[in-house]
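Researcher: Let's continue the batch. This sequence belongs to Transcriptional regulator, XRE family with cupin sensor, and it's 200 residues. Same format as the previous ones, please.
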Amino acid sequence: MNKKVNITTDSGADASVINEALSAAVREYRSQKKMSLDELSRLAGVSKGMLVEIEACRANPSIALLCRLAAAMGVSVADIVNVASSPCVRIITAEDIPCLWRGELGGSARLLAGTSGPDMVELWEWKMHPGETFETGSHATGTHELLHVVQGSLHLTVGEESFTIGKGAAAVARTDKPHSYTCEGDDPLIFTMTVSERAR
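Model: Same format as before. Here are the structure tokens for Transcriptional regulator, XRE family with cupin sensor:
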């Protein structure tokens, strides 16, 4: 099985826009809080060197790193990549939906929309090709993911347990443990995912 973990966007426009947004968010947060790189590094569990690269817009952050930084700064990933909700209604055009992961075989994960702040809900669309896997660490305690398989078969692993979710089926998973998604079988996989996470 081909396996690539936490590849983020390619070298195209998505990566550049996301890197610039994250760089600006980290700089603004540190400025507002009068916080040193060392302090944010400890708070987020991200190395100081990585933070320097992020602020200089030279890093290509994984989804897991985006999540850790967002949680440490009290915002959502949707806030950082500018697909968060407004007080009433916010329409996000197809062109403005960021791709935050690309698999080595052409798969993708797009953050379609999300709410602002540390208590957040996100809506994702995942497309994976046979053999592709995405692995990530634990989310905050009590985080849940709601998954619906539109096409193909999803192999979901949470901690030590594994499950297969077929076309048309749905699942609720508590993802405060390391977890992974794999495209199982010979057909491409498409699934939607809603993430609900509360601030620690």
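Researcher: Any comment?
Model: Helices lie at 13-33, 37-44, 48-55, 63-73, 77-80.
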